[in-house]
Amino acid sequence: MEQMAVVSSISLIAIMIAIGAILSRWTPLTGDTQRMFISLIFNVAMPCIILSSIFHVEMDDRLFKNMMVVFALSVIINVVGIFLGWFGSSFFIEDRLRRAEIGIVAGLGNTAFIGIPLCAVLLGPEGALYAAIFDAGVDFTIWTVAVMLLQRGKQSGIGTLKAMINLPIIAIVVGLLLSYFQLRPPVLFIDLFDRLAALAAPLAMFYIGFLIMNLKVTNFEKVKKTLWLPLTIKLIILPLIVALMLGFTAMDGTMSQTIIIQAMMPTLTLTSVLFAKYSADAESGALMTAISILLGLVTIPVMIFVVGWV
Fold first, then answer.
1. How many C-beta atoms surround the C-beta of residue 138 within 10 A?
2. Is 7 left (phi over 0), alpha (psi -120 to 50) or beta?
3. Which residue positions in the chain have pLDDT lower than 50?
4. Is 143 a domain residue?
5. Does residue 215 sit within a domain?
6. What is the pLDDT of residue 158?
7. What is the pLDDT of residue 310?
8. What H or E segment, with its residue span, contains residue 236?
């Protein structure tokens, strides 16, 4: 992977975030605006980028095996990140819910909003497909480990199981089944998936720009003393651990690069929504997410250079 391609992609992401921030001056991020962005991204753009990736790669036993490995590694990496954040914060934070928040910020990355589009640009359809499978592992971790920590031992119930069933997950299952049985939709639909997939990156970055501009600077006081821990783990320590771990394997190049890129992603964009749902500190979650994304624009290309892909 060429370093200039990485820098170019990150620069485009930064520009699109800036455009979203500028647009927010005329269109504030209200509840309706936020729901519209999330609906378009998760219910239209993300499923289409997944389906587009599936129908542009040659599906075989090797690819299916690789996808199962990526899913398993995704869950392991996410849980390791959460544990590092939870364990590290236990030395200076007594509140278990606050430790859970820091663990989630440290472990769960922005693998959908930023990771899938970035892998699609840098690694092509196969990289985008692996990135989507990695994101499915993140979703699984969110609605199992993360929810369990936030609910502090309460039963999650049927609602948690239903939340795991969403359109991106359905797109992965349906697309893989069609591909496995060598069934392809008409060219018209493949072209439609390709065009709608192109909306994923701009819409996601515009939303992040809106989110950043909607934050209150005064909330920084709540997190400034603990902010360094989850962000250091998420943006530096966890990617290095993953890179070192994969360095001892003979894993396929595109597959390993996708996993490392996804491990580098800044904190999950929907952290604040997750925290709000389970009575945690939603405002602090949003602030840590925004700072993580801004820092990620610098750390992602630096970390790619560090792990030796140039």
1. 24
2. alpha
3. 153, 310
4. yes
5. yes
6. 57
7. 40
8. none
- 28 sits in the region (left: phi over 0; alpha: psi -120 to 50; else beta) called beta
Domain count within the chain: 1
What backbone phi and psi angles, to 5 degrees, belong to 156?
A: -80, -30
Q: For residue 202, what is the domain's CATH number?
A: 1.20.1530.20
Answer for the pair 259, 70: CB distance below 8 angstroms, yes or no: yes
pLDDT for 1 equals 53
- The contacts of residue 53 (CB under 8 Å, 6+ apart) are 120, 125, 126, 128, 129, 132, 197
**Is residue 106 within 8 Å of 230, Cβ to Cβ?**
yes
Positive or negative, the Cα torsion across 231, 235, 238, 244?
negative
Distance CA 282, CA 271 (A): 8
The residues, ordered by sequence, that sit 6+ positions from 88 with a Cβ below 8 Å of its Cβ are 102, 106, 229, 233
CA distances from 58 to 28, 75, 115 (A): 44, 25, 22
- Is 160 buried (19+), middle (13-18) or exposed (0-12) by CB count in 10 A? middle
CB of 184 within 8 A of CB of 51? Answer: no
Q: Which domain holds residue 96?
A: 3-304
Residue 310 in any domain: the answer is no
Q: Give CA angle at 301 (295, 304), nearest 5°.
A: 125
- In terms of DSSP H, where are the helices of the chain? 3-23, 31-40, 46-54, 61-89, 96-107, 116-141, 147-150, 157-163, 167-180, 187-197, 200-213, 220-223, 228-232, 238-247, 253-264, 271-277, 282-306
Q: Is residue 229 situated within a structural domain?
A: yes
Long-range CB contacts (within 8 A, 24+) of 61-66 = 63/126, 63/129, 64/176, 64/180, 66/130, 66/252, 66/255
The pLDDT value recorded for residue 233 is 94
